Amino acid sequence: MSARVRAPELRGRGWLNTGGRQLTLADLRGKITIADFWTFCCINCLHVLDELRPIEEKYADVLVVIGVHSPKFEHEKDPDALAAAVERYGVHHPVLDDPELDMWQQYAARAWPTLVVIDPEGYVVATMAGEGHAEGLVRLIDELIATHEAKSTLHRGDGPYVPPAEPQTTLRFPGKAVALPDGGLLVSDSARHRVVELADDGETVVRAIGTGSRGRADGAADTASFSEPQGLCLLPAHVAEVAGYDLVVADTVNHLLRGVRLDTGEVVTAAGTGRQWRSTVDDHAHDALSIDLSSPWDLAWYDGRVIVAMAGIHQLWWFDPVKRTAGMYAGTTVEALRDGPLAEAWLAQPSGLSVSADGARLWVADSETSAIRYVENGVMGTVVGQGLFDFGHVDGPAAQALLQHPLGVCALPDGSVLIADTYNGAVRRYDPAADLVSTVAAGLGEPSDLVLTPDGAVLVVESAAHRVTQVAPGALSAAGAQTVDGPRHRTERKPIDLAAGEVVLDVVFIPAPGQKLDETYGPSTRLVVSASPPELLVEGAGTGTELSRRLVVDGSVPGGVLQVTAQAATCDADVEHAACHLTRQDWGVPVRVVADGAARLPLVLRGLDAG
């Protein structure tokens, strides 16, 4: 039996969703507490917020979820940006602002997201990295309820959450937009769970499609519902006629693609089951309504199909609305930056798409690598961006330029590309002829998309400002742009000291209570390891089925980042019609090679305290 570990006290810059109250662990005594370490750029963290919602509702009188916001990007350290994100993503529990990652270090978190379960007496009983833990959490909470009711240490009643007032604006955190051929604009009004048609002034609401409440119902415009919709794609007329709808909507949190008839506003489900994708990578075509998706974020018509920025699993997918089939297009699900043939490329939360005027090139905003990438002739390339941990606001030669979590791109007729540089609050321009990046506009509210209108104007979706604005025409030329030599940032987390030579990587995974490893469809576990720089590892890179791996670290390389992806398949044990689950996590582990470093690197995919 291991020693029981007291949860460290909760301290930070401030609290949100508590009505101004500063919470302590003493205030949570008698409740089961889940500390959710997250950062609002991270799609896996957003998945966990969605997984926690029904659990919070079911156990409202005994469970308190505390969001501990430990940021990756510089912009995420801004308290106003955090407050906006808490509203944008419907976070209905207290949030502790941890801008310097103090709590992250106190609780030994190494990955976004990480969940820590604290019992009613203030002891840590479980740590879980990654997503897909909902079933395990429910079983653990049931066990804790039974144990602590018997000990009289469980106190039922309301939690400390205090909802903030919602300001009234025409749009609320709009995500993406598309211009209508006859004027006007369609906008995904993401935080209000609807699609809005605006007049050509960009402000007047012509109509709304969707009830405005979170849901996933098909039907007429006033009864259909979405959940945080993002990307929009108008189909070519001949395709729309066969498909039976004109517009495809990335219904992000529902993990669906929806079709909308623009003449009536009727909504149908075009692709997806509503379940989040947790499977194995293949190159097959699947029936569109039978395949699981994962947080589709943007859409574009390219190569005779709808291309989907599947942010949730770091891939691009395709969807054929005529054949009603869908499948994977690019990426392996490994979260990193690597160019090459589409099936071998690595992406990191692709969130924006745009097609060049000649239709030859698909531009991609790869948000977590702060990169602008492209697809052409079956290959993925990168024009701006250096990796998962390098970002900033720097113009100039594209190879040295830096962005900060861009969410949108817009290809212009002259071959240049506009970039919604979201966390820098700017619109940037990449000129491929000169291979230069410049700043077109600054001081914007988290721009998330750019739209070229039929008359040549460029509109910006300012998500955090809840509006659509126009870029000044003069700023779009090379002469009208400016050059910014701003700060360069690199996400610096405390590195782990490793010894040169042999190091054992162990990913700790214990199935949730009532579950067992599932080998019905092959090996139950999978481990992918790579390094940046690649020279850091002499041996051990690659894919295997064991969660333990012998690595050989090159002592001549001072350090770098180990990129580790682990997953484990489980199913319910000893029950009829057992449900199956897939737990998965990506780590970017900064390491330093030193003489007295460790010879073992443990990572926790899911761990339980044996005591």
TrEMBL record:
Keywords: Repeat
TM helices/strands, residue ranges: none
Occurrences of domain Thioredoxin (ranges): 1-146
Annotated source species: Micromonospora qiuiae
UniProt KW Lyase keyword: no
Entry annotated with the keyword Magnesium: no
Top-level taxon in the UniProt lineage: Bacteria
Protein name: Thioredoxin domain-containing protein
Pfam families hit by this protein: NHL, Thioredoxin_8
InterPro entries xrefs: 6-blade_b-propeller_TolB-like (IPR011042), NHL2_NHL_rpt_dom (IPR045302), NHL_repeat (IPR001258), Thioredoxin-like_fold (IPR012336), Thioredoxin-like_sf (IPR036249), Thioredoxin_domain (IPR013766)
